[in-house]
Structures are given as structure tokens and as C-alpha cells.
Amino acid sequence: MSGDDRQYFEEIQVGAEYVSPGRTVTEADIVAFAGLSGDYNVLHTDAEFMRSSIFGERIAHGLLGLAIQSGLGTRAMSRPFATLAFLGLRWRFKGPIKIGDTIKVRIKVTDKRETSKPDRGIVVLQRSVVNQRGEVVQEGETEVMVERRR
Amino acid sequence: METPRYFEDIPIGEALRTPARTVTEADLVRFAAIAGDYEGLDRTGGAPGAASAVPETLIIALTSGLGFRVPVAQPLVLAFMVLDWRFLTPVRLGDTVHCRMQVTAKRALKEGGVLVEKREIVNQRGEVVQEGEYKLLVARRPRT
């Protein structure tokens, strides 16, 4: 493949950090995600009910935040990882994302390790989703399998 | 609205199975647009003629909605707290997935209580393709 500028396992540095552009979460995003997922919970879809809740208004699905940060993550790196598979995640939803909030994701490589197979390795990323006030609204760790150069 | 169930109403060990849902190209395209992640739409890799693998987080999204389609009243969820998840094998376009859920632990808090649910995503061949745990904050029964 020509123009393969992906980062292979050997090149990825533990400690490397990336910050994405921001993205404003809109009512349209929440409505679209409710339609796609089938999660019409009142938290996300009933403005009248939510007016009297502790949040005071509808909030984004936690999993919508997870989806948006994954897309932002692809825009944070000029050279994407040569990812073979997404292995898992440990994720905490720490605060609400409200309509009009602007979020970005900070990504840090915290660990990498070889596997029994010589053509691949595991990379661990710490990710924090931060709103316009600097509050961490979601955070967690993702593990990906990345190709090694042969 | 159907009366929701409160923290106190949900027994540890309750096991539920959701209906199934076939993962379509429309789901893939809509998810790419919402997430802003178009890598799942690149068909240049993979074996010729093979169905595309779909983004793992799309399957989490689709099955979270399936979790509401069970024949018992919904718990009154106040917040999604923790998602601890493993991706075991790819899901491909045209696969049909459902979810098995079981409440494994409960912990009462001052406001509400935490439900721990083990969830397994199963494909049409009975293979577990993803599994993990949801921790949900659920409302306690209001004192009257």
C-alpha cells in the first residue's frame, strides 16, 4: 500500500499525548443517537420531565459521548495507529454532557506490551473527555491491538 | 407512563434476554455520521466479498437500546456510571445480535443505588462477541 503513514507498534511512544479539536454536542446529535440506538430514556428525550430533574434539562447519552470522542480521537492524530483490533475499555461517565456543551478528547499512551505473536502488540491509551469549562465528563482506558512492522 | 421499578424492586440474579437486531449498512452509515468516525466505511481491507466488520462501539450503542426491550418494567435510571467491556470477536454487517443481562450486585447509596449488570452480546450462531459490565445509578423508592 502506498502512502501508508500509520504508526506501527514499534514507533508508538509511551507518554505521547494528543488533543483533539472541539465539537459542540447539539440536540440533533442526541435525537439521532436515540433513533439509532433505540435508547429513548427520558434523560435524553423528555425536555419537560428533565426540567425538574437534578440536571435541569436533557443530557446526552453516555454512549453518545463515547462515540463522539472516538471520532474526535481520529482527528487528534495526524498519523493514525495501525490498529488491528479494539480489545476493550474501562470507562467512567463522570458528569453530564448537555446540549450546547463543547467537548474534546485528550489521549495519552500509558503502556505498550508485546504479545506471543510477533506481528502485533497491545497499546493502552488513557482518554479524558473534557468540556468547555475544563471539567472531565468521561474518562477511561482503551486497549488496542496494533500491527508491528515486518 | 408505566410505573418504573426502583432500586429496591430489582432482585440480584434477575436474568433477562433482549430481542435481537440485525446490524445493517444503514446503521453503519448513521453511526459514522454521528460519531464523526468514517474508518468503518473503508472497504479496501479484508477478504474480497466478505462482509465488513462494524465498529465495536456501534454494537454497544445498538445493544444498549435492546436492553430497554425486555418484558419487565424499566428501572428508573438516573445515570450511567461505569462501562467495563471486552471485544471478543468482530460483528459483521448482516449479523443479528441480542443481549443477555443479569444483575450481579447492588449497592445502596444515600441518593439512589448502584446496580451492577453483567451483559453478553450474542450473535446468530450463539457466539458471545462482546461482554462486560454496566454500573447504573438507579432511583430509590420515594418515601411517602
How does this structure look, described?
The complex is a heterodimer of chains A (150) and B (144). Chain A is of the alpha+beta class and 150 residues long. Chain A has helices at 27-37, 42-45, 47-51, 62-76, and strands at 17-19, 23-24, 83-93, 102-114, 120-130, 136-147. Helices cover 23% and strands 35% of the residues of chain A. The model of chain A has no long low-confidence stretch (mean pLDDT 96). By secondary structure, chain B is an alpha+beta fold. Chain B is 15% helix and 35% strand. Chain B contains two helices and six strands. Chain B has helices spanning 25-35, 56-66, and strands spanning 15-17, 21-22, 77-87, 96-108, 113-122, 128-138. The interface between A and B is large, with 36 and 36 residues. β3 of chain A pairs antiparallel with β3 (77-87) of chain B.
Largest pleated sheet of chain B: 6 strands, antiparallel
Summarize the amount of helix of chain A as a percent range. Answer: 10-25%
Computed structural class of chain A: alpha+beta
By oligomeric state, this entry counts as: heterodimer
Most extensive interface: pair and counts?
A-B, 36 and 36 residues
Radius of gyration of chain B: 17 Å
Number of E strands of chain B: 6
Summed up, the helix count of chain B is 2
Euclidean distance between termini CA atoms of chain A: 14 Å
